[in-house]
Amino acid sequence: MACFYLLVAGLLEILWAFSMKKSAGFTQLTPTLITLVAMVASFGLLSMAMKTLPLGTAYTIWTGIGAVGAFVIGITVLGEAITPLRVIAALLIVAGIVTMKLSGGQ
Fold it and tell me: Where in the cell is it found (predicted)?
């Protein structure tokens, strides 16, 4: 169950990052509210996952899902640049997540 909580927490991290961008510095009410609710839910689920998962593994996976997910949303939804170095950076994050998961713990 911890892995499920962690996955949902990571997806919520993508949501709050995107809605924070859309909030225009917290000047738009709806995206601001989505940001705050998604943040609280994401942190809550992360803390539940950390009851059984090692800190380093849980935090690395959570931030990795958020970082790569925000990168993909930035490109696909917000029209941000896709460059070879940005793609390599995202792939290195994914490689780090996989390596962390395979390195032990749960």
Answer: Cell membrane
